[in-house]
Amino acid sequence: MSFRQKHLLGIEPLHPEEITAILDLADQYVDLNRRDMKHADALTGLTQINMFFENSTRTQASFELAGKRLGADVMNMAMQASSIKKGETLIDTAMTLNAMHPDLLVVRHPHSGAVDLLSQKVNCAVLNAGDGRHEHPTQALLDALTIRRAKGRLHRLNIAICGDVAHSRVARSNLILLGKMENRIRLVGPPTLVPSQLAEFGAEIYEDMTEGLKDVDVVMMLRLQKERMDGGFIPSEREYYHRYGLDAEKLSHAKPDAIVMHPGPMNRGVEIDGEIADDINRSVIQEQVEMGVAVRMAAMDLLARNLRATRANAPVEV
Ligand code: NCD
User: Fold this and answer.
1) 309: CA distance to ligand 1 center in Å?
2) Cβ(276)–Cβ(282) below 8 Å
3) Percentage of the residues of the chain whose pLDDT score is greater than 70
């Protein structure tokens, strides 16, 4: 089997063949999800617990649906009402849940590295649903699937990632994934939001949107993540929209068939013009959401196969 991971903590540890294995299986789940009968049995009998320590709409709903469609028992922990509020540590909460024998743990946490730490303490497969500014692997995988289906390939494309790169785990995971698949990546935004160290990943950095978008195949917009900003990163939202908000004029510099992406949630009129976001000829934002369910089904299916194989070879723990 080409997918060998025990957890999905980031894109960093994945080989290109493992990325392709997830995307190929996800393609099959896209077909399943378009049928009336959406059930498969890859996770039957397994327990999936979703622990979201940060707000989420799409990611949590998508992981929940993905697990249910594959037959898992899915539980969403209401973290706002949990004992974390009474001072329990992340690890204590995780150990408590671990004693209930979950098989898949889906975790979103505001601190970079927290999900990795947790994965070392439990004996089930852990999926990172976003940790601080670090990684958001399933988002990068669903973006990759969306690009591959729209462009017919996932290599040698010119891709611009625009806006608040500094605070974005989506940008980081995409940068790593798209680089591994041999694409040319540009990071476009003001110097306060596009750290120059990111050139290390092999990306070209542009301060000007018109230049940065010239002849690209893919325009990936990012939300201005004000909750992660602790100072004045931009002069004003109006000024930001004027220079960096994606509108028809700026998009006209990309290739005529360039696609527009956004991971959501969108701030219309801040990083993207509402009409561009809704233009079904350019925007693949709804496809991204659809691909999200399929990619999460594929990732959990592959992790569950490895989990079962490991348990079959190991003595049962009591
Ligand atoms: C992203 C996230 O949470 O990192 N959203 C998502 O998962 N769809 C991006 C964001 O919040 O801007």
Assistant:
1) 33
2) yes
3) 96
Q: Is 130 in the pocket of ligand 1 (CB under 6 A)?
A: yes
Question: Whole-model pTM above 0.90?
Answer: yes
The residue whose CA has the least distance to atom 3 of ligand 1 is 130
Grade residue 314 by pLDDT with cuts at 50, 70 and 90: confident
- pLDDT single digits (tens) 101-124: 999 999 999 999 999 999 999 999
Write down the pLDDT at residue 1. Answer: 56
Of the pLDDT bands very low, low, confident and very high (cuts 50, 70, 90), residue 226 is confident
